[in-house]
Amino acid sequence: MKPYLVKTPNLIKFFFKHWVWSFSKKEKVIYVTFDDGPTPEITEWVLRQLKKYNAKATFFCIGKNAQENSKIFQKLIEHGHAIGNHTNNHLKGSKTKLATYLNNVELAEKELYNSKLKTHNSKLFRPPYGKLSLSQAKKIRAKGYKIIMWDVLSADFDTSISKEKCLENVIRNTENGSILVFHDSIKAKENLQFVLPKVLAYYSEKGFLFKKIS
């Protein structure tokens, strides 16, 4: 597994200030997000956990997955969660030409933001792997998207770390206004199912609210 940053440094936030990394620290609010779904069984399990705490979240969906699992995708909307674009085929920006990348974003947009669903007013985008060139970012923002990154990476996708370490990543680094990243994917399932209920319970007991990004 390649190295990654669990806590996003302030210097990175400064240099990429047009991207959203976190929100106001004045309120006890956490923004839980999920990448790579919807995935059968796993996404539905996530929805049940969120419901227990009246928590709203933001799901950055792969367009292809939303198309193949349309009933689950519809449940995300019915439960009042926000939807974000995560490209149609989980492309890595640093490995993909500009035109190809933008076309893939557009393909996902047709699945996620069509007129029948009327998901929400804001257009949200998160690049897979957190990889995005400045030219790609400029074009995506020109399409009306907010680029949503993160403050805390749970690393639930990393099968080389323990469930306990994954939980520690979140608890040690989360603060008011943090954007947390989880994955409703098969790869992250074991860590996710251990960590998410504990995170929701821990911060609920401390008086935090869980809100979706708009």
Explain the overall architecture.
The structure is a single chain. Strands 1, 2, 3, 6, 7 and 8 form a 6-stranded parallel β-sheet that branches. The protein has one domain (10-210): Glycoside hydrolase/deacetylase (TIM Barrel, Alpha-Beta Barrel). The termini are far apart. The chain has helices at 10-15, 42-52, 63-68, 70-78, 98-112, 134-142, 163-173, 189-205; strands at residues 29-35, 58-61, 82-85, 123-125, 145-147, 152-153, 179-183, 209-210. α5 (98-112) packs parallel to α6. It is of the alpha/beta class and 214 residues long.
Secondary structure elements and pairings:
Layout: H1 10-15, E1 29-35, H2 42-52, E2 58-61, H3 63-68, H4 70-78, E3 82-85, H5 98-112, E4 123-125, H6 134-142, E5 145-147, E6 152-153, H7 163-173, E7 179-183, H8 189-205, E8 209-210
Parallel strand pairs: 1-2, 1-7, 1-8, 2-3, 4-5, 6-7
Quickly list its features.
8 helices; 214 residues; TIM Barrel; 39% helix; alpha/beta; 8 strands; single chain
How far is the first residue's CA from the last residue's CA? Answer: 32 Å
What's the CATH class label? Alpha Beta
Number of helices: 8
Helical percentage: 25-40%
Find the count of extended strands (DSSP E, 2+ residues). Answer: 8
Report the C-alpha radius of gyration, rounded: 16 Å
Number of domain modules:
1
Flag low-confidence runs.
Answer: none
| Fraction in beta strands | 5-15%
Concise account of the structure shown:
This protein is an alpha/beta fold and 214 residues long. 39% of the residues lie in helices and 14% in strands. It has a single domain, classed as Glycoside hydrolase/deacetylase (TIM Barrel), CATH 3.20.20.
